[in-house]
Amino acid sequence: GENVEQHPSTLSVQEGDSAVIKCTYSDSASNYFPWYKQELGKRPQLIIDIRSNVGEKKDQRIAVTLNKTAKHFSLHITETQPEDSAVYFCAASKNNAGNMLTFGGGTRLMVKP
Amino acid sequence: ETGVTQTPRHLVMGMTNKKSLKCEQHLGHNAMYWYKQSAKKPLELMFVYNFKEQTENNSVPSRFSPECPNSSHLFLHLHTLQPEDSALYLCASSHGTSGEDTQYFGPGTRLTVL
Fold this sequence. Notes:
Mean pLDDT of chain A: 93
Mean pLDDT of chain B: 92
Distance between the termini of chain A: 41 Å
Number of strands of chain B: 11
Oligomer: heterodimer
Radius of gyration of chain A: 14 Å
Radius of gyration of chain B: 13 Å
Low-confidence stretches of chain B: none
Largest sheet of chain B: 7 strands, mixed
Helix content of chain A: under 10%
Structural class of chain A: mainly beta
Order of helices and strands of chain A: EEEEEEEEEEE
Largest interface: A-B, 28 and 28 residues
Strand content of chain A: over 45%
Number of helices of chain A: 0
Largest sheet of chain A: 6 strands, mixed
Order of helices and strands of chain B: EEEEEEEEEEE
């Protein structure tokens, strides 16, 4: 089955700096990669996703890149703000597999003002 | 924030108790999911239902018994649980199960097994 590794497990940055979180996956058939943000005591919420037919997607301060050959994808947050502090999860799934998401272990991002 | 609701939000139970978790989605979705979120572990998919039919059981022990009476409601019946079953149980829903359907999560039920 699919295995998703996520690094780092914790990340501390100064407000205004950039943050990068990296994930690798094992199943080359995976083709959908969402990122979820979970604030303390709240539900995971989708912030961005990417499909395997594109290499990069951007939404304001958030971008995701995908390298299918190397089987890794990354989340980039620019101009970080204190409200970006949360746990971020990457995930992977593939078509015709029941929409079964395999999640990474999560990254706790702390943005210091 | 009210698209997927879960009750109760917190539950404490003994190992011999029987309890049920409830999830309701107001998004018109056809697929619903149960996940387990333990400390220091990735989110683990437990069950998937599509149009009320169970399509996935991710090797979950039989002390967890799901029920999906319709596409809007999902239950997780609990009996003779173990302390290691203490976790946050999250429900999610999506339009379908194509592999690219966004999953929307509920707020979770924090379960403590004594």
